[in-house]
Amino acid sequence: MRPILDLLKKRAPVNWSLSPQDTVFDALQSLANHNVGALMVLDNGKLVGVFSERDYTRKIALAGKSSKDTKVKDIMTANVISVAPTVRTRDCLALMGQKKIRHLPVVDGDKVLGMISIRDIMDDIIADHELTINQLQHYISS
Q1: Which of 17, 42, 89, 99 has the fewest C-beta atoms lying within 10 Å of its C-beta?
Q2: What's the rounded Cα separation, in Å, for the pair 4 and 12?
Q3: In the predicted model, is pLDDT for residue 132 greater than 90?
Q4: What does the alpha-carbon distance between residue 92 and residue 89 come to, in Å, rounded to a whole number?
Q5: How far is 42 from 76, CA to CA, in rounded Å?
Q6: What is the pLDDT of residue 47?
Q7: What is d(CA 27, CA 126) in angstroms, rounded to the nearest whole number?
């Protein structure tokens, strides 16, 4: 398996993020606009949290709070699990399974490089397996 940085490089450079001061309503609009399930929360370029649909459903909708009156900082996941760009995709997948998370920021020191989802990793694994199968089929038929 390849380093997670290779996976980030394969796709368009995207670093969508929120501010801790954004309202939850604005954060939901951003999730919808970008068609994603989570966004990083950055304060002056520093990763301070992750906001996800899960945060909204559990901490706003089920708690009867208003998304227009609540700030992202009040409900985001602040104890962010992140990985270095050299961590291998398989190790990221294992970590995500252990921690029961679907999104994983990639950070090099203090520099935020991006965020990958479990779908990104699964797509990469499937593509890798398809390549291996095609190579084996070609080898067998030669």
Answers
A1: 99
A2: 14
A3: no
A4: 5
A5: 11
A6: 95
A7: 31
Q: Quick one: tokens of 20?
A: 């801790």
Could you give the CA distance from residue 24 to residue 49 in angstroms, rounded to a whole number?
A: 13
Q: What tokens appear for 101 in the block?
A: 């998370």
pLDDT above 70 (res 13): no
- List of domains in the chain: 4-141 (3.10.580.10)
- Amino acid occupying residue 32: A
What is the Cα–Cα distance from 46 to 75, expressed in whole angstroms? 18
| Contact call for residues 55 and 77 (beta carbons, < 8 A) | yes
Min mean pLDDT across 49-63, 78-92, 103-117, 128-142 is at 128-142
* DSSP secondary structure of 3-65: BHHHHHHHS-----EE-TTSBHHHHHHHHHHHT-SEEEEEETTEEEEEEEHHHHIIIIITTT-
Backbone angles phi, psi at 112, to 5 degrees: -85, 120
Are residues 50 and 76 in contact, defined by beta-carbon separation less than 8 angstroms?
A: yes
